[in-house]
Amino acid sequence: MSNNVQMWVGLAQNLLIQLPVVFVAGLALAWCLTHWGQMPRACLLGSIGFALVLARAVAASTLQILVPRLMGGDHRMMMMFFTVSGVVWSLWSALAYGLLAAAVFADRSPAPRASAAGARP
């Protein structure tokens, strides 16, 4: 098998591994976009968060295959790249999850509090 074919097969395998994440993030992003009028702030935060999750899944899968080819087998450089990219992916994920957590609570009014006199035992 030629190197180009191996690269495309590897990329397809990596993307298939990420398929559950891509599928759920894609559906959630579509839901956010279609419900924007009902909950604009929550849908904005959710859209950005799910777009980040989706982009991370595709970008990480792609770079994992392309970087070794582009660096020509320089193991020291690849190790450095993957270490730095691991930190970047971690921060990227933290940002996405933070936005998704904010989306859960956006556009909600607080639940009414029970008064002490009207509280049930």
SSE layout and pairing:
Elements: H1 3-17, H2 19-34, H3 40-70, H4 75-105
Task: Explain this structure.
With 121 residues, the protein is mainly α. The chain has a domain at 45-106. The protein is built from four helices and no strands. It has helices at residues 3-17, 19-34, 40-70, 75-105. Helix 1 (3-17) packs antiparallel against helix 3 and helix 3 (40-70) packs antiparallel against helix 4 (75-105). The radius of gyration is 21 Å and the shape is elongated. The model has no long low-confidence stretch (mean pLDDT 87).
Gyration radius, to the nearest Å? 21 Å
Compute the number of strand runs. 0
Number of helices: 4
Tell me the β content: under 5%
Secondary-structure element series: HHHH
Cα shape: elongated
Largest sheet: none
Could you list the spans in which at least 5 consecutive residues all have pLDDT below 50? none
Average of pLDDT: 87
Distance between the termini: 74 Å
Secondary structure class reads mainly alpha
Summarize the amount of helix as a percent range.
over 70%
